[in-house]
Amino acid sequence: MGIQQQPFRKRLMCETTTWLLFIFVFMISTIRGQIRYSVPEEMKEGSLIGNVAQDLGLDLRRLRSGRARIVSGDTSQYTELKADKGILVVKERIDREELCGDVMPCSLSFEIILENPIELHRVTVEILDINDHAPTFKSKVIKLEISESATVGSHFDLESAYDPDSGIHSLQNYVLSPDNNFVLKQLSNADGVRFAVMILQKPLDRELNPHLSLKLIAVDGGTPRRSGTVNIDITVLDVNDNPPVFNQSLYKATVAENAPIGTYITTVNASDADSGSNGLVSYTFSNVKGKSAEKFEIDSSSGKITVVDNIDFEKDKKYEIRVIAKDQGGLSDATKVVVEVLDINDNAPLISIMSFSSIISEDVSPGTTIAVFNVKDADSERNGHITCSIDSNLPFKIQSSLTDYYNLLSDVAFDRETKPEYNITITATDSGSPPL
Ligand SMILES: *[C@@H]1O[C@H](CO)[C@@H](O)[C@H](O)[C@H]1NC(C)=O
Ligand SMILES: *[C@@H]1O[C@H](CO)[C@@H](O)[C@H](O)[C@H]1NC(C)=O
Ligand SMILES: [Ca+2]
Ligand SMILES: [Ca+2]
Ligand SMILES: [Ca+2]
User: What is the distance between the alpha carbons of residues 367 and 407, in angstroms, rounded to a whole number?
Assistant: First the structure.
């Protein structure tokens, strides 16, 4: 045969096919008999392995007289020969995983010796695997941090599970749940250990889902199947993929002229869906100089707009301000704030005499123009609507001519001898409240 005898392992004897073949050939020539049994692992102490007496064709008396016993004691702890009954039983719990690990098939070999005359019988007990282990992961949770900009097809290596059982009872498959964003790719390395890689198939969006919670389940092929689970906690890292957005494209406000400095106008508001500095918005006016920018001020963090200079309706009736919101990553949005100035009655009418004949002849006919005057009021509407009057006892009247122009006319015939002189006061009044 040319095969050298292998040294027995210290505690366990797990043979290769070649070794079995060797034993077989060896036994034909030197050993009287050999028997083989198959038992599952984890059998109770005292469980029957086989009827040795019967299988070897020996009677119980011969066993007794030959003081039959097990030799090659390295694995003798597991089995016991009950010579009185001629049976072989389990003496101590047999754990296939401990005995053989990955080696298949797993068996115990020993000899039964009888004396007077000496007889040697080889017994091989094959230990069959049972599915007494579930696949397990070392960690309870796998934590991953993945940028929301990760491209489809990106790979994420996952911890593999371990199931010490053999063959079909060992790890067969991985399942990922839920599988919306990722799919699993299952691979085996050279020594047959199965592992899984998670592949991004649908882009992540931190604004939609900042945290994903998945389960990786490892399953064996037993009946019933056993499984082990590890949680996969994914933190989606932000990138600046959202600009700030104003909640209104136009903000309208009013302000009374002469409003004191610090008067509140309005608050603009832009939101940014990103987190941290990518979502931190600051507000500025688009133009730093110019009438609008100098009359108002914006709080860069709150968007609150207030008055910082005197507002005069007579100079500007409306302001239009462009406001820019910018995040720390440089993305921006713009909006328009229209501030309408409300007039208040802060201007009195102003009378100017354009022409005046201070001396008139007593025989002028009634309706002769004595003076032409102009009244101006810088306010608008009612605040600038003028009425002119004179003392009603005087023999004069006022007639409006062109816009803002008035004529002072004689109303009756004069008589110098009765009254040589009149002192006339013209009063111009606007319609504001209070009137000026
Ligand atoms: C900005 O507007 C949004 C919705 O329009 C609102 O939820 C948020 O509270 C506002 N922010 C401030 C500071 O008022
Ligand atoms: C926009 O935000 C401002 C300031 O927070 C708020 O007063 C206003 O109601 C918001 N407008 C809309 C349309 O939500
Ligand atoms: Ca198993
Ligand atoms: Ca097992
Ligand atoms: Ca942003």
Answer: 10
CATH of 29-129 given 3.40.50.2000, 3.40.50.300, 1.10.260.40, 2.60.40.60: 2.60.40.60
* Banded model confidence at residue 30, pLDDT cuts 50, 70, 90: very low
In CATH, what number does 131-239 get?
Answer: 2.60.40.60
CATH number of 243-344: 2.60.40.60
- How many angstroms does the Cα of residue 132 sit away from the middle of ligand 4? 5
Within 6 A (CB) of ligand 2 lie: 247-248, 267, 269
CA 86 – CA 67 distance, rounded (Å): 12
Instruction: From the CA of 303, give the closest atom in ligand 1.
Output: 13
For ligand 1, atom 14, name the residue with the nearest CA. 269
Partner residues linked to 185 by β-bridges: 197
pLDDT on residue 31 = 54
CB of 247 closer than 6 A to ligand 1?
A: yes
Q: Classify strands 405-410 and 396-400 as parallel, antiparallel or unpaired.
A: antiparallel
Taking the complete model, does pTM exceed 0.90, yes or no? no
Shortest-distance ligand to the CA of residue 268: 2
How far, in Å, from the CA of 246 to the mean position of ligand 5?
A: 13
**Does CATH place domain 1-28+357-436 in 3.30.465.10?**
no
Task: Look at residue 28 in the predicted model and tell me its pLDDT.
Answer: 39
Q: What is the rounded CA–CA span in Å between residue 272 and residue 209?
A: 16
